[in-house]
Design brief:
It is built from 13 helices and twelve strands. The protein is an alpha+beta fold and about 425 residues long.
Length: about 425
């Protein structure tokens, strides 16, 4: 494996900063009509700019004072209760993504990948929409937090937040007066009921497919989604190719289940279900492979260095809801070293799909970690001060705008420096 050279990106010059500021005005003009009246359009511009340039906390008050007109209560209303639709903003984000970033995937063997993941946002108190003691992946433990489910589009030229939805724990969906009053205080629509995270994720992917702006060549997700049969059913109904991580105890058929149906013995009912002699765990299937079936692949740079692993893949049949499922790929990724870690994936893809393609899609998932790192560290994604359902979604869509603007500006600065 060759050596890697890391070069620090030079700081922006004054001319580049000025050009970026002018570009933000042009970028915002495209989105401005979606916010309604001129005052609301100005609030949107101030908020997006504040997410990028406020030196410390990037919440409503400092943004209003540092970037806006100083009217804190007006900006609060714009985020918390204003009638503009975050879904309209997300549609425009998708349009820009297709125009500016999707072309960079034209020569990529994996095209455009949609990455599903959830992220937690620590909160004090129990009044914010959806807050509860639940798993916070960033902390790696249970915490009092809100959790959102996100769909991030990934191309070689950059990533963008395509859609998102706040997760409501069951405690927020009980048929009691106390729960209804609690929901009313934070403006949760009565039409929003309990959905699991995989159900929300499936909805985000379906909405994107129905909207028809972005065509996802692949979807990838971690094992929370990979072990959920209903989520996989939904993707397959959309003819959506995927590579999803699955737990080590996931079972598959190693032979075509139709060939495992016992022959009719001449008495009683004719057998219709396959026997399970050919069912094995993914760990058992992979451990039985010959050493020659593994290949070492270097898939480029990740957040922590080169993405270099051993991969193997074998064609199997899924076990879905205890029954025979479709033919799929079983992919394994093994880290290099004395005590290798093995991860397992199921892929709904053509039998002719090369191993390198399956491996690249699986390793694209790290891009969502980069997105969350950038958005939370530099764009105030977790610093919002809103308790409402509407406010949470408004904030996330404005973060999506800010992130997309930064992505395009970085790209253009790189082009300019190369020339």
């Amino acid at each position: 494996m060759g050596s890697c050279i890391f070069m620090e990106t030079p700081s922006m010059t004054q001319d580049e900063v000025r050009a970026a500021a002018e570009r933000l005005v042009q970028f915002h003009e495209r989105f401005a009509p979606l916010f309604g009246k001129e005052q609301a359009q100005d609030h949107a511009y101030s908020y997006v700019k504040g997410l990028m340039v406020c030196p410390e906390r990037k919440s409503i008050e400092p943004i209003a004072i540092f970037v806006g007109d100083g009217k804190v209560s007006a900006l609060q209303k714009f985020i918390n209760i204003a009638p503009w639709g975050h879904d309209d903003v997300q549609t425009e984000v998708q349009e820009v993504f297709v125009e500016e970033l999707v072309p960079t995937a034209a020569d990529s063997p994996i095209g455009v990948v949609g990455v599903i993941d959830e992220s937690g946002f620590a909160k004090k108190g129990g009044h914010s929409a959806g807050v509860d003691r639940q798993h916070n992946g960033r902390l790696g433990k249970e915490d009092n937090c809100q959790v959102g489910v996100f769909l991030v589009g990934v191309t070689p030229g950059g990533s963008a937040l395509l859609d998102h939805q706040l997760y409501l724990p069951e405690s927020w969906c009980e048929p009691t007066k106390a729960c209804k009053d609690r929901r009313a205080k934070v403006h949760i629509p009565s039409t929003v009921g309990f959905q699991t995270k995989p159900q929300i994720a499936a909805g985000l992917i379906r909405q994107t497919a129905v909207l028809g702006v972005v065509n996802l060549d692949w979807v990838t997700a971690d094992e929370l989604y990979g072990r959920n049969g209903a989520f996989l059913d939904e993707l397959e109904s959309l003819e959506q190719r995927y590579v999803v991580e699955v737990p080590v105890n996931t079972t598959v058929w190693t032979e075509d289940p139709t060939s495992c149906v016992p022959p009719y013995g001449g008495r009683g009912r004719v057998p219709t279900k396959p026997t399970r002699e050919a069912v094995a765990s993914v760990a058992e299937v992979i451990s039985s492979l010959d050493p020659g079936q593994w290949r070492t692949l270097n898939l480029g740079q990740g957040a922590k260095g080169p993405l270099c692993y051993e991969f193997a893949a074998v064609r199997v049949w899924a076990v879905r809801h205890g029954e025979a499922g479709p033919p799929v790929w079983l992919l394994a990724r093994r880290s290099l070293g004395a005590t290798p870690e093995v991860k397992y994936y199921i892929s709904y893809a053509e039998a002719s799909t090369p191993l390198e393609v399956l491996a690249k899609v699986a390793c694209t998932r790290h891009k969502v970690e980069d997105f969350f790192e950038d958005a939370k560290s530099y764009l105030g994604m977790a610093q919002y001060e809103t308790r409402s359902w509407v406010g949470w979604h408004h904030h996330m869509s404005l973060v999506a705008m800010a992130h997309l603007f930064i992505t395009l500006t970085r790209r253009d600065l790189k082009k300019k420096r190369r020339s």
